[in-house]
Every structure is written in C-alpha cells, then in structure tokens.
Amino acid sequence: MFDSIYSSIVTPAQFFLMAAAAVLSGIVYAWIMSFRVRSSKRFFLVIALIPFVVGAVLTFVNGNIGAGVAIGGAFALIRFRSAQGSADEIAAILIAMGAGIAFGSGYLGYGVVILLVLGLIYLLISMLPIFEHKSMSEEKLLKITIPESLDYTGVFDEAFARYLTSVENDGVKTTGMGSMFRLSFKVKMKDPKEEKEFIDELRCLNGNLEIAILPYTEAQMHL
C-alpha cells in the first residue's frame, strides 16, 4: 500500500488508479476542511481536485527537467491572477499540493495519509483553545480617516489617553485620490463597553469621516 505503484513506464491502469485515489481522497479532504475553512463552494471543489492535478503533472513530467521547468513557470503565472487568501485557505492548498506530490510519485498510501490525517489534525487543533492569548485578543486595529487639511499630530492624544490603555502608530496612507489620510493604530481599550463613546469623540475630531475598529490579526489581511 505504501510502495510506489509506478514502474519505469507508467501504464494507463496505474495512472487511472492514481487518479481515483487522488480524487476520492481529495473530496473527503475538502469535506473535512469545510468544517474549518470559511470559503466558497468553488474553493472546496478546487482543493478536492488539486491532489489529482499535481499528481498528474508530476506523472507526465516523470524526470523530464525541461518539462518540469516549463510547468513550474506556468503554475507561477497563476499566482499573479489570484487574490491572497486567508491563512486557512493557504494551509488547505499547501496540504493538498503536498499530497499531490505523493500521488504523482505513485505513493498512493502516503498521499491519502497526508490528506486525511493532516486534514483531521488541522481541524482538531483549530478547535482547541490554544494560541488564543488574552492579551492578543484585546488588541484592535483603529483606522481613522481625516481630511488632508487636518494636522493629525497630537490631535487625538486626549481621546486616546481617556479611553485606551495602549496605542501604537501602525502607519499612515493617503486615500480618496489623495484628498484624505487614513491613520492606523494598534490599540487596547480600557473598557470595551466604551467603544461607541470613543468612536463618537473621534468623529468630532476627524470631521465625521470613516472610523473603523477591527480585530487586529484579521484586519491586517485587509490593509
């Protein structure tokens, strides 16, 4: 089961056996990951087929260095037409590709183990309350939009001192065709219940433009 099914020449029977194992285990793997990854149905269809696609590519390359380089370049082009996904989506794709390498080498047993076992491990670990430090969960990303005419140096200091235990400047960028600035701060609230009062005070200082308070780790992906 854990020996390679491929010989020096890949026969049609060997290829279709690999295809069946890769597609079936890929479907089960996508179903397992659907309990953790928040994404569209199309994404799960893709990761169900990735093990077979990668396995088929490696089967056809079969030691041909030139073909391998050409196919690697073709796959690299896909990156520039794809939006960056979440950490869960990237992990799901990497696991599927790792299994595809095993399938493409003829090791069907290892490919199935990589898909199903790693999928279950990822699901179980994500359900455990680890890596969820209280201090990190309290951190927020504050984004304040201001008109370009406002000198933002120190203008929010009093409000920050009244409502925040800590504040760290996380960058400034222009927006609205350069007519506005967007300030970003990593903050911790003294009392989360005062969040609305805090926002209302900031609105009085920034001309009632857009203000957002987001979970810091999640918000980082959308900057």
Record the SSE blueprint.
Elements: H1 12-33, H2 41-61, H3 65-79, H4 87-104, H5 108-127, H6 134-137, E1 139-147, H7 157-163, E2 164-175, E3 180-189, H8 195-205, E4 211-215, H9 216-219
Antiparallel strand pairs: 1-3, 1-4, 2-3
> Strand order, biggest sheet?
2-3-1-4
- From N to C, what is the helix and strand string? HHHHHHEHEEHEH
Share in helix: 40-55%
Q: What is the residue-mean pLDDT, rounded to a whole number?
A: 82
Tell me the fraction of residues in β-strands, as a range.
15-25%
Overall SS class? alpha+beta
Query: Sheet bearing the most strands, described?
Result: 4 strands, antiparallel
Task: List low-confidence stretches.
Answer: none
Basic shape: elongated
Report how far the terminal alpha carbons are from each other. Answer: 47 Å
Radius of gyration: 25 Å
Total DSSP helices: 9
Structure overview:
The protein has 223 residues and is of the alpha+beta class. The chain has nine helices and four strands, in the order ααααααβαββαβα. It has a four-stranded antiparallel sheet. Helix 1 packs antiparallel against helix 2. The longest helix has 22 residues, at 12-33. The chain is elongated and about 75 Å long. It starts with 11 loop residues before the first helix and ends with a helix.
